[in-house]
Amino acid sequence: MRCPLCGHEESKVLDSRPMLDGRSIRRRRECLGCSRRFTTYERADPSPLMVVKRDGRREPFDRSKVLGGVIRACGKRPVSVEAMDALVEEVEREVRQSGSPEVATATIGDLVMERLRRIDDVAYVRFASEYRRFRDVDSIAEEIETLKERKRREDALRDQVPLISLTDTQTAR
Q1: What is the pTM of this model?
Q2: Average pLDDT value for the chain
């Protein structure tokens, strides 16, 4: 590995640690030329994934674009960088695990919105307003009402007492 500080061709690895649930490795290195230390990151080079834009254009999947959209949506909200990064990691993993060489921007947007809704309502509405390109204030208000209704249903389900099944009562005897 070439030293980024002096350009020397050789370095030795001092420490290696897995990162991102084992999907990448962080290596601490020391240059054999100038003896300074630097860090490198190693990831498997996944098969190319193409994103199909609304107008039909195709471009390579760019994780940083998804993260940028999430960061803008979460601006000045109590959402940690780690939570945003984990969200983007989940979306990328799900898209890649589909096995398809192409994915529509609509699919990526839906996956991001689904996860943002669980993290922060305001970030969800911000992202949805950009992604869904609302025509007017009424369509934004409609989306907020849908979000409120979904939250009420989820809260009601959470408050319900689970029923005991017949098999549970038979095994308890």
Answers
A1: 0.61
A2: 88
